[in-house]
Amino acid sequence: MSEFAYQIAYQYELEHRIKDRDGRRIAFPKFIEIMAYMNPAWESEARYEIQKILAEAPYDDSLYTMND
């Protein structure tokens, strides 16, 4: 189920992308929202999953900055 939620969250991010920002800033909260909508008990699991990802690979907007 989480793979489906990730797909929706990243599609949402593509449609709402902000230049020079790590797209996960949009996708991750949407992922948590989707998981909570499908089953309120899954929200805490989704938050934990995102925390683990960010502990390994924190947000980094500099990777998305284009130097002209």
Outline the fold blueprint.
Blueprint lengths: L1 H14 L8 H15 L3 H15 L12
Helix pairs in contact: 1-2, 2-3
Number of E strands = 0
What is the global morphology? globular
Strand content: under 5%
Secondary-structure-based class equals mainly alpha
**Helix-residue proportion:** 55-70%
Low-confidence blocks of residues: none
User: Radius of gyration from the CA trace?
Assistant: 13 Å
Gap between N and C termini: 41 Å
The number of distinct helices, counting runs of at least 4 residues, comes to: 3
Largest sheet: none
Please tell me the overall pLDDT: 94
| Helix and strand element order | HHH
Defining traits:
single chain, 65% helix, mainly alpha, 68 residues, globular
Protein model, in words:
The protein has 68 residues and is mostly helical. The longest helix is centred in the middle third of the chain and has 15 residues, at 24-38. It has 3 helices and no strands. The model has no long low-confidence stretch (mean pLDDT 94). It has helices at residues 2-15, 24-38, 42-56. 65% of the residues lie in helices and 0% in strands.
